[in-house]
Amino acid sequence: MFDYKLLEALDMVLRCGSFDAAAKRLHLTPSAISQRIRQLEERHGEVLLRRENPLCATQTGEKLLAHVRQVRALEGELAEQVAQQNNVGEWLTLSVGVNADSLALGLLAALAPVLAEQRLLLECVVDDEAYTLDLLRSGEVSGCISTQPIAVAGCGVLPLGSMQYIGVATPQFVAQYLAASPASPDWLPQLIQAPAAVFSRKDSLHRRLLRERWGLLEGQYPCHVIPESNALYAAAVAGVAYAVVPHQQAAAALASGQLLALPAFAHATPLFWHHWARQTRPAQLFSQALQAFAQQYLKTENP
Q: Which fold has domain 91-303?
């Protein structure tokens, strides 16, 4: 049997990032939190929490976290069912790992009906879609949008479709930095001089395209790091840089001539929805709403 007071202490330490912050959230002393973690580790006969900066769970610790968070989700669903019988609605929190581009394309608006009907509060953990699956493995989220097609243990996976990306820049930027054809020997020297805009230092798509298609490594080209999808797109519109963005995000500006397409950067990224195998009813409805969003915004054909 599990002692959920001990598991709650482990969960809160990792959510808050420190023993002191976890103690305040649980109305305990830091020494009491430390004692609970130690008791949990003694019961399992191994270290569950790496005392690093930042704090992180071991592999067994991650499994325990995933368990306690699933139990909490099921308890929340039961509380909601009981509350509905008494005509008192309770809000449930659903933690999901999402990529910034999905948020920029209107994911929250598409999910609004199910969030209201099911009284769901979203806790969105934003990361590059190539890394969100780590959030599910660790138990930090109960579902995530990922590029990985294979389900992890204890989880299910649904294909969503492909997000279509295109390189964009203003006409003035293209004339100054990228006037040569990609087939021209002048193209690579231009790329080395053209300022790019990427979402983060682990923005895998843009960097991967530069590496795989032209052999350019990080540090071999100028690069702005702009960790917000709409702001990154705005940088391209302002002529600060060229960027690789979802085709739908740039469609209007491309049609008006405000931006020019850089077809050499066109790419389709398949996306998948990973979720706990045992979903609560609100989580199931959330998954269905997410699939409806995907049918509208994710395509299979190239732009």
A: D-Maltodextrin-Binding Protein; domain 2 (3.40.190)
